Amino acid sequence: MAPSLSEFHKELSSLTTMNQTTAKAAIARDAVLTKPAGSLGELETLATWLSGWQGKHPPSCDRPQIVVFAGNHGVCDQGISAFPQEVTVQMVANFEHGGAAINQLALAFGASFSVQALELENPTADFTQAPAMSEAECAEALSAGWNSIDKGTDILVVGEMGIGNTTVAAALSAALMGGTGADWAGPGTGVSAEGINRKAAVIDAGLSRHESVLDDPLRILQCLGGREIAAMAGAILSARQKHIPVLLDGFVATAAAAVLFKANEQALDHCYAGHVSAEPGHKKLLQAMNKEPLLSLGMRLGEGSGAALALAIVKGAVATHTGMASFADAGVSAEKPD
Ligand SMILES: Cc1cc2ncn([C@H]3O[C@H](COP(=O)(O)O)[C@@H](O)[C@H]3O)c2cc1C
Ligand SMILES: O=C(O)c1cccnc1
Known about the structure:
CATH superfamily: Nicotinate-nucleotide-dimethylbenzimidazole phosphoribosyltransferase (CobT), large domain
Strand content: 5-15%
CATH topology: Rossmann fold
Number of helices: 15
Structural class: alpha/beta
Number of strands: 5
Helix content: 40-55%
Bound molecules: alpha-ribazole-5'-phosphate, nicotinic acid
Largest sheet: 5 strands, parallel
CATH architecture: 3-Layer(aba) Sandwich
Shape: elongated
Oligomer: single chain
Order of helices and strands: HHHEHHEHEHHHHHEHEHHH
Radius of gyration: 20 Å
């Protein structure tokens, strides 16, 4: 049977929850490791978060999976990117040959990598003219993401490639969080100030055309989104139901996640923000969802690259949490009472 949006609505209303027993086991172990209490800062929070969402203690970061989804956007007809649309399919070939930034980051941090091209020869409709996708197309893209997670994956990074998709992410952000095109449009691949104004006007046109669906996040995704963005949303939701924590990448990946957040404010509790992108809308979008980024490196690439770098931090959290000695085992004196 063809997938439908109602199945994803159903998943969003029956989310798995964090395992309190394994989260507590992590907190208890943390308390006896040979360091002053709290001295590993965010690494301690990460170890507990991983344990809780993986539902196991000790937690692991041995089988990270990075999946990049690629899609093309009809809204490119409005002249909203510094690059031509054919770069999407050219970059897919580059990913397949190992030549993109994300290939090198996957290698550097021992992650598996795959790319899924989603009907690149058939771009979504220009959202200023029509819904970007039919309901069936949107559900199909969500399903592609839902089915993309490998057996044994213990942490997931989703990334994207799609010329024009910072305009799409900004339109989604405005529709989901409020505001106008000017509040969310940014340079993307490097458009001029005039280009940013054009992006803002295109987004405003999309918002007014699809005004009637703005109270339903999955309809917003269908009307203003794109295939790679729907696939990222499907993968993030699938990871939740499979007890796999997720690292969020930049503005575009976070806009996909924001669809889930607006449908259910608990839907991203299994997600950590890997980094904050230089694309200006990203910081605002993270703030709207109460997410603190792990890294801030001025990156603005997408492809999952910022989240892939954050794998190094998560690996550090797991290594210290699992490998350190306890005060008792190491014969180190514990803190004196006051
Ligand atoms: C060579 C190249 C590699 C990329 N890798 C990611 N993106 C990023 O830039 C695009 C979004 O920016 P805009 O909305 O301005 O088109 C997306 O494909 C995103 O993944 C790239 C862009 C280019 C040109
Ligand atoms: O932050 C991102 O996801 C981003 C920024 C610029 C271009 N592409 C993606």
